[in-house]
Fold this protein.
Amino acid sequence: MTTITRDPPVARRRTRKAGRWIVMLAGLVVVAAGAAGGWYYWQHKTTTVVEAPPQPIYVVIKPFVVTMLDDNQTTRFVQVGVDLEVTDKTAKERVEQALPAIQDAIRLQVLQSKIAEVTSPQGVEQLRKLLIAQANVTVNSVMPLPADPHAPPARPGQTAASPVHNVFFTELVVE
């Protein structure tokens, strides 16, 4: 007769306990590896900070009326409203202090123009370029730039002595 031998119950318990310990140890290794990977990722992650582009700064010149004569010697009225885009806050302060002189320079420049120039797109663009140059000359003559070795650099294409970056016509009405 054949006898069937069975493992004693104590031996069976030992193999079950050993299996449980192996599974728990494997789980602990997986959790530790995940934690180490997460720590490594967060420690070596490079954050890129994107700076917002600088907001433009404007000086508003209230609309004013200039009386002109056209080619037929008829009196025409030109209402001009302008916003000046300046390079920075220091330039804004300089432009605001020289504002009456800038308004006078704009008025004289418009008076020197002809009605046909003021009403055509090419003429308006030419007037814009002249006003930018005239505004910069006026600001620099009225409020000279102090020599500051710690001043921030100007925008590309602009010198520190050019506080007015652009001129925008808010109103340009010819009657």
Q: What stands out?
A: The chain has a mean pLDDT of 82. The longest helix spans residues 9-44.
